[in-house]
Amino acid sequence: MNDGGIIAIFLQNLPVLVVVIPLLLSPVVAIITAPRLAWAISVAGVGGAFLAAILLQSITGSIGRVTYHLGNWEPPWGIEFVVDSATSLTLVIMTGLAFLATLYARASLMSEVKHTDLGKCYAAWLLASGGLFGLVATGDAFNLFVFLEISALSSVILISMGAGADRRALSAGFNYLIIGAVGATFYVIGVGFVYAITGTLNIADLAARIAEIGGNAALYAGFGFMIAGIMVKAAVFPVHIWLPAAYGYAPSAVSSLLAAIATKAALYVLARLLFTLFAGVPDITELAVTYVIVPLSLAGIFVGTVMAIYEKDIKLLLAHSSVAQIGYIALGFGLASSASVAASFVHIGNHALIKGGLFMAVGGFVAALGSRANLASFVGIGRRMPITATAFTVCGLSLAGLPLTAGFISKLYLVRAILAEDAYVITALVLLSSALSLIYLWKIIEVMWMQPATAKAPNLAENPAIYFPLWIVALANIWFGVDASWLVAASRASASALLGGGL
Amino acid sequence: MMMPQTALLVGILVPLVVACLTPFLANRPLWRDAAGPLGGVATFIAALHVALAVQAGETPRLFVVQIAEGLAIDFAVTPLGAIFGLVASGLWIFAGLYSVGYMRGAKEKHQTRFAAFYAVAVHAAMAIAWSGNLLVLFIFYEILTFSTYPLVTHKESQAARDAGRLYMSILVGTSIVLLLPAVIWVWMVTGNLEFSSGGILADALDPKMAPMLLALFAFGVGKAALVPIHRWLPAAMVAPTPVSALLHAVAVVKAGVFTILTVVVYVFGIDFLSASDAATWLVWLASFTILSSSFVAITKDDIKARLAYSTISQLSYIVLGAAIASNMAVQGAAIHIVMHAAGKITLFFCAGAFYVQAHLTKISELDGQGREMPWVFAAFFIGALSIIGIPPAGGSWSKFILMVGAVDSQLYFVLAVLGLSSLLNIYYLLEPLSRGFFRSKVKEVTVESHPLVVIPPVITALLSLALFFYVDLFADLASLMVAP
What we know:
The complex is a heterodimer of chains A (503) and B (484). With 503 residues, chain A is mostly helical. Chain A is 77% helix and 2% strand. In chain A, strands 1-2 form a two-stranded antiparallel ribbon. The longest helix of chain A has 32 residues, at 338-369. The mean pLDDT of chain A is 91. With 484 residues, chain B is mainly α. Chain B has one domain. Chain B is built from 18 helices and 2 strands. A two-stranded antiparallel sheet of chain B has the order 1-2. In chain B, helix 14 (374-388) runs antiparallel to helix 16 (412-438) and helix 15 (395-408) packs antiparallel against helix 16. The chains are: A mainly alpha (503), B mainly alpha (484). The interface between A and B is medium-sized, with 28 and 27 residues.
């Protein structure tokens, strides 16, 4: 594979570069004690991955599919990285948001994490990012498990870093460690079953052999374990219980990173399992989506929304809302039509923008307040920190799906996809939940903007260091609400890549 | 003469520019307050150009951006849109003047914020009027709701906040749960959302589903205030009267019935609708709304509450015309948008004038006050005549055409409904006048003179009279609306 000079080699290596750039820089960062340098290297690492993902996206747009064989071992023996339209779109979304979150991280982590921990924090940050990118890029079922563990353990470290500000972060991290480990174990047990039957771990090879072998009790068991394990990671109701505390007590920059990319990667894997790996046994996958994924998604949508309505702590509120939003994405996959899967990809992108931006803004408030952000401390904050509050409001309106924001586009395509299935009850439930989501959003907007601050409220200083990433995300929420052509087209291509027989 | 496209752009942008400039003029109240009426004049001239172009058979268009396949933000003025644009911009001139007098006279706080959101609301109304497709209409419908929220809660009291919550939950709730799926449904079956004369659904929608879709629209457009989703309108009366006058008698509520009429004429198409018999139920519901809210109006002693219920009743005239879906009936409905707007804004102006000049808010307090405020009472009289539908006031035309439309469709009970409604109107709208002139005073008041709250109602009252004689432009536009 060394014909055509350095650029060709670079392009051929893109699928693995997305993953290894952050991973390899992680140990470098770990030994650096100067936080600023550690941060700069992290930015370069995640930025490099972002660049690679953009290139991959344009390549898959023209030639469809790119593969990379680790160590030049041919599949199915060696580990293969496979990037098609669906992979590259997910990677662009994840690396892009991770890049912005990394840009944002310096100012935010500085105020929320002990200075001596910052180096380690960035090392874990790069590991988590690289692990999550790997989850998406890999074409090997066992390698996927490895990335699952890399990202989970490093995420636990990141979440626990919130202990400096609130010691509940420790129990949140521990909960995630245990529940995440159960999920990963379920997944690997499932892989064991499937390997026992097929004798292969390469996903494309697995898909082909499963299609030949057909229905089989051990295969069904493997399917169940794998799907259940990934659902834990994706925080689909009712195995979402680790998520609210994890996002709620982690440092804000970490919440922003994880909310934007962590569950998205797991949701992508869920779709891969359903539509690629197990495409050969449609009887069991159809059963799973109809009787498990769709009902659980709907339940998650309502549980998350109602919990958010009653929640007073802003970060926990946003975390509960994430459970609901994950429900929308899983619902789109669950309906398994090309329109609904495309709608899910649209929402993967838009929700990453929405939640990434919201947690960034909350981080700004937390730093200024010096305490947790809740409804009481938010009174009148709009007039005291107008720039951050406006960005928060823009992303919030997008979350509620108001016209001219990215969230509205998601809603349009999701509802259209559901209506096209003649699923009127589900349509009604989704719309109802969407109206309910306005309640928790409006609750915040009302205290932010409509109520004057009490006389004894301290002066709050905005932090200009977060303006750039925050406002990029906020404006992107508007941009993708007004010009959604690229995202919609890429999502359609992703859906047809996924449903068209896969890898 | 401006190009119609330029006029279209001007008409949509001027209110937005006024809104953006207002905060910068906070320290120059004179300039800030002049911006509204001047903006109104500019917008109205633009709207007139657009309307004349439409009358001459053109369709002024403005393409803004393609959101995705089948989804675009573009403006294209239908004859019906030209009518609504004229109404919203024309009355903004007077409402702008009036609101200066009112806000200063009543010494309201936050006048800058008020003026800014007021202009945003007008901007949204103009964009709704001239929207080229259902998506644009939906977008600005929501913007209109959100921009009026700070106006409804202007007093920042607990009562205002509660009313604001009811206002938002009904209007936004219905728009998301019912109107949005209706829009998406149309998008799904037709592939685009462009308005087109004769409708776009005739070959795309199963006629059996038409009543369902129409119901989603009728109840999704909360601003049209059909029973049982009318509660937000009386609640919104907590706002300062200029808001009730322009927005809750003209821009907001007319945006609601305009949406329904647009959907009937340009999305369903009246032929498809009448052939599929999808709107029969709506004829009955609109009739029920007309009568029941009239009865409720009689029981209200608060002037603004009575006018609010009268508005609910009058809005259903327009919905009724749309539901009958005959050539004549929809024309009557379109003209009623104009006539009711001029009449009702006059009545609200008067209600505000009673409050600002003499702190009177109840009809029972008006006893014997006629000679104290003769101009205001005279304007109220003419406004009431127009609403009732008695010549020589404009309102008689629309009621007459609506009745002809009902007879065309052999819906004779509608005649009885309209007749009974007129009788009830006479009772509850002329009561304040008889009390003002034929009873002795129950309350001594000192009348402060504020010319800016008296002149606008007098002008709009004269406008109501003029509309009886000069109805040609609107009649032309209305007949173009149903021309094949």
